[in-house]
Amino acid sequence: MRPTMIRFASVVMTAALASPTLAASDLSVLPQGRYGCWTAGVASGPAVNDEPGKSFTIVRGSSYQSEAGGGTYLLASDILTFTRGPFKDMRLRRTREGFWQQIARDGELGRLKCSRRGAVPLA
Q: 101 lies in a domain?
């Protein structure tokens, strides 16, 4: 009976290792600092429209703070997912240009864009 259990455990471990899940090396954290968000403006007005309600500050590790409160996020490869707090379930994708663009529920890129605006002040 013991060899059967060992074989079963071996099969389960092999299947688990082969599954397409994220490796720990794919996870990261954002640099601490303020991240400002905006949407594109119109030709007859300002080039961008600031969205202060969507701006956030990375305070430490995978924690953020916004006007509406704090929470946590997960950065996996080029996808930033807010997992707790006021931005829960909001997702952003890193673009070639270096900013973050919101991913709509249908998977398409949305209008909202964010980028790092500076370091967190000490004190």
A: yes
Structure tokens at 71: 């929470």
Asked whether residue 64 is domain-assigned, the answer is: yes
pLDDT of residue 21: 54
| Nearest residue to 102 via CA among 83, 116, 117, 87 | 87
- For residue 95, give both structure tokens: 């673009």
Q: Which of 112, 109, 114 is nearest to 99 (CA)?
A: 114
Which residue range forms the structural domain that includes residue 80? 22-118
Distance CA 32, CA 118 (A): 9
Which position has the higher pLDDT, 78 or 5?
A: 78
Residue 16 lies in a domain: no
Residue 115 burial by CB count (10 A; 0-12/13-18/19+): exposed, middle or buried?
middle
pLDDT digit string, tens, across residues 89-121? 999 999 999 999 999 999 999 999 999 997 666
